Amino acid sequence: MSDTDTTGLRARLIDVGVELVTAEGAQALTLREIARRAGVSHGAPRRYFPTHVELLSAIARRGFADLQDRAAKTVADAGTGPRVRLTALAEVYLGFALSQPGMYELMFRHDLLESNRLGLRETSLPMFATLVDLVGRVRPEADARILAGALWANLHGIAQLWGWGSLKLATGADDHTPLLIAALDAHLGPEER
Q1: 2: left (phi over 0), alpha (psi -120 to 50) or beta
Q2: Could you read off the pLDDT of 119-138 as tens digits, one per residue?
């Protein structure tokens, strides 16, 4: 098999995994199902990904790259103020989580992934660094890394609970935007309006 064939099949396995997680969720990502949908034997993925975890990590890497691209474009277009940019970043994060729930779940299931392999950390950490930077600009007196972590946890909770329908039921809200604004205000102080 040529290097081009090897690279092509490796990419195809990841593509199929991305399609599968998008359509059916992280629980559908078995080696056998990915191989079947890629049109190869069930043992073929092992030639490119010695473990199931490595294939899942490669699929998650695509998700992180997609989210990072969306975030970078949105933040760049949001304006110059750190609060405006931070709000845009949070909106992209929630939008991704709610529109790509299967991929989002996989990306943050570190019990399923090897974040130190296949460049997963290098793909996932830049957005957190952006979050830390923007939080530090809005709240220079605070420990930006800790505050950004708390804000991220809050956003993750909103994404999960909104996606499950729990926040709609509990708050009666028709849109997650008021919850996002409340989380930003809680962590950063009220925005001047």
Answers
A1: beta
A2: 677 777 888 999 999 999 99
Alpha-helix runs per DSSP H in the chain: 3-24, 31-38, 45-48, 52-77, 82-99, 101-107, 120-138, 144-164, 166-171, 177-188
How far apart CA 46 and CA 128 sit, in angstroms, is 32
Tell which wins on pLDDT, 110 or 25. Answer: 25
The full set of domains in the chain, from first to last, is 1-50 (1.10.10.60), 57-188 (1.10.357.10)
Q: How far apart are CA 184 and CA 177, in angstroms?
A: 11
Q: First CA to last CA across the chain, in angstroms?
A: 62
Q: How far apart are CA 148 and CA 133, in angstroms?
A: 9
pTM exceeds 0.85: yes
Per residue in 50-77, pLDDT (tens digit) is 888 889 989 999 999 999 999 999 988 8
pLDDT computed for residue 79 by the predictor: 81
User: Tokens standing for 150?
Assistant: 């708390």
Q: At what angle do helices 82-99 and 120-138 cross, to 10 degrees?
A: 140
- Is the CA virtual torsion 141, 142, 144, 150 positive or negative? negative
